[in-house]
């Protein structure tokens, strides 16, 4: 049976892996990104749009119109793929003294604020879509109990806050749609621009291609149950501690 997936933050490496895998399986994909549409592909609808965070807490009429069009076709699952770790001369902090307002603000804007306002925009439709799965890409380094190395202050803080956002949102969504599953998803380490500066010391076999990551994530999203709503789930389907 053909599925219809909504991929948000669609220009990144993991998002592209998901899109190509879904299209190869014969499913429909709606994609939202700040970036312009790539070459047209059958079964792919691409919507270029600013993120809700660009407009503060308000959800723009443009985004509302896009979501109305997407959900009018029925949606199987939504994946929010936003993520920022480094850029513009900013790298993950090894020490508290390296933390800057600029790096913390940038990390919060992309990893937390953007996702929060997308969930705000999505909620009216998620409440009415039976059995919908919503995966928010997070990170294992956002787990407080698993943190034994320290460092990476702004990224860890943003992802920990993201996990709380997902937990709270899942509880609210569950009051209106008990069959919905909204959860945080750790994708593992994928060969992408986000991880590129940090790949040289990885153990053999830990770095996955976008295609391999997509296969694992799609299997996990399809298998996740209502009992796992609000939780942090690993790429292989195992629940991770907060």
UniProtKB/TrEMBL annotation:
InterPro entries: Fungal_SecMetab_SDRs, NAD(P)-bd_dom_sf, SDR_fam
Gene Ontology MF terms in the entry: oxidoreductase activity
Domain of life: Bacteria
GO CC aspect terms: cytoplasm
SUPFAM superfamilies recorded: NAD(P)-binding Rossmann-fold domains (SSF51735)
Protein name as catalogued: Short-chain dehydrogenase/reductase SDR
Species for this entry: Alishewanella agri BL06
